[in-house]
Amino acid sequence: QVQVVESGGGLVQPGGSLRLSCAASGSINDATAMGWYRQAPGKEREFVARFFRGGERLYTGSVKGRFTISGDIAKKTVYLQMNSLNPEYTAYYYCQVIRRVLGSVWGQGTQVTVSS
To answer: What is the secondary structure of 74-89 as a DSSP string?
Structure first.
C-alpha cells in the first residue's frame, strides 16, 4: 500500500521561505509525476506545481518565479521551495503521487501559515 507523507510546514513571517518535503513509501513504479496542491480556508483545493519523471516541471501561474519544485520520482521524493511568502499562501499543502495505472495517492497535508 502506498503512503505519502508531507513535512516542512509551519509558521513563517511574510517575506520568508519554507521548504516542503514529500516522501512516498510502497510501490510507485508506475508513477508519472509527483506534485503539490494547496487548500486555503474556505476554498477548494488547487494545483500548485508538478514534477514529472523526466524532470519537467509545471507551475500554476501565481507561484512562477517564487516556488521551485524538485525531486526524484525513482526515489519517491518531491520538494517545494517556497520563497517570498505572503499571507495569501497560507493553506494546507498536499502532496500527490500520480500513478499511470492505479490512480493518484494523496498525503494528509502540512499546514503553512504566513503571518507576522
So the answer is: GGTEEEEEE-S--GGG
Task: Using alpha carbons, select from 94, 105, 110 the residue that is nearest to residue 24.
Answer: 105
Q: What is the pLDDT of residues 78-92, one digit of tens each?
A: 999 999 999 999 999
Cβ–Cβ under 8 Å, residues 95 and 35: yes
List of residues 6+ apart from 61 with CB closer than 8 A: none
pLDDT tens for 8-33 read 999 999 999 999 999 999 988 889 99
Residue pair 60/49 in contact (Cβ under 8 Å)? The answer is yes
Strand-pair category, 31-39 with 10-12: unpaired
User: Between β-strands 10-12 and 110-114, what pairing exists: parallel, antiparallel or unpaired?
Assistant: parallel
Whether residue 10 contacts residue 100, with contact meaning beta carbons closer than 8 Å, is answered with: no
Beta-bridge partners for 92: 39, 111
Phi, psi (deg, nearest 5) at residue 44: -80, 160
Strands of the 18-25 sheet, one edge to the other? 3-7, 18-25, 77-82, 67-72
